[in-house]
Amino acid sequence: MPSAHQTSGSTSPAHAHATPSSQFRIGYVPYSADLTNPGDRRRFPAYAKARGIPFEIARPDQDYDVVVLSEVADLGAWLDYRKGKLVFELIDSYLAIPLSDPMQLLRGVAWYAKGRHSRLFLNFPGALERMCRHADAVVCTTEEQQRTIAPFCENIHIVLDMHDDLIKSVKTDYRAGTPVHLVWEGLPSNVYQVGTIASALEELSRRHKIHLDIVTDVDMPHTIPWLGRVKTLDIARRLFDAVTVHPWEAATWSDTITRCDIAVIPIDLGDPLTVGKPGNKLSLLWRAAMPVVTSATPAYLRMQRAAGSGELACQSVSEWVTALDTLIGDESARRTAGEKGHAYATQVMSTSALLNAWDQVLASVGIDVPNLQRKAP
What we know:
alpha/beta, Rossmann fold, six-stranded parallel beta sheet
C-alpha cells in the first residue's frame, strides 16, 4: 500500500511564487449540490474545511486559479476549460474496464440521460482519457489506477478518504457471545456483494450461530423508477436468513459497528470495477479497531499484508470459511487483527498524511497552501 501522499511525475515549482491568498479563487464541482454525498464529506471539501481554505461551487464560465472536479463533473462543460488549472478526481477504475463490456458501452449514454454530462460521450472511457490529458493533475485512489492513468497525465496523486466524521469510538472488547455478529456496511446498492460469500456463511452456520448485521440505508430506489423503493432488508434476506438492517447514521455509526464482532468486505472478484476499488472501507473499519475479513482485491491484499494480516484477504470461498472460522473461535485472534489494523490505519493512513497529500496536489498545480489558509471565524 503506498503512503497516503504518493505522487507520480514532477511537482511544479510555480507554488514558490504564489499569489497572495486574497487573490486566490478555488472552485469545486461536487458530487451533490448540498455537499452531503460521501465523496464531498470525505474528500476535497473535508480537506478544505480542515485547512481553513475557502472554495466555491465552480461554474465553467468563471475564472479560477484552480478547479477541483469530482468524478461526476460534467465533462462536456469542462473539457475545453482554459481559465484556470484543473484537478480531476478519478476515483473509480473505469479505465480498467474493457470497452467491449456492456455496461461500459452504455455508461456514456446513461450519464447523459441522467443529466451528468451535457454532451453525449458514446466512448465513455475515451472521454475520461481526454479529461486526464486536459487536467493539470489527476487524483486517484490505487496504484493500479495510477498506472492506468499514467499514459494520459504525468502529475498523478493517490489520495484516500478522510473518515474523522465517523470515528467517535473504537472497539476495545473483543469477546463474542452467541450468536456471533458479522457486520457489513456501505451503500444499499452494494448489499448484493454479500452474496459472493453466501455459501461460506451457510457452511459456517452449520457449526456456529451467526447473525449478519448490515449498516446501510433502510431502503433504496427500485431499478425501475416507477416501481418506487425497495426495502434493503428484503434484499438482504435473500442472501442470508439471520440478518438485521441498521440505519446508516454518522452519529451512531461507530457504536453500531463496534458492538459487532467481525467486519466483512466481500467483493465480486470477477468485476473489474469493484476489484479496482480503493482501501477506503477497510481503512475506515480499521480506524474503529475492527477485525476485518476481505476479498483479496489488489488494494485490500496490499493493506492486509502490510498490517500483518494477509491471511484475512480471501480469494475463494474456502479461504473465507477458514478466515472467519479462525476469528469466530479465537478472541485473541480477533483482538490481534483489530489492533494491527488500527495501528496501520492510524499511522500510515492518518488524517495528517491525507491532509499533506492534498497539500501536494495543490502545490503541484502552483498553489501554496499556507497562503490559502485562513483562521476559522
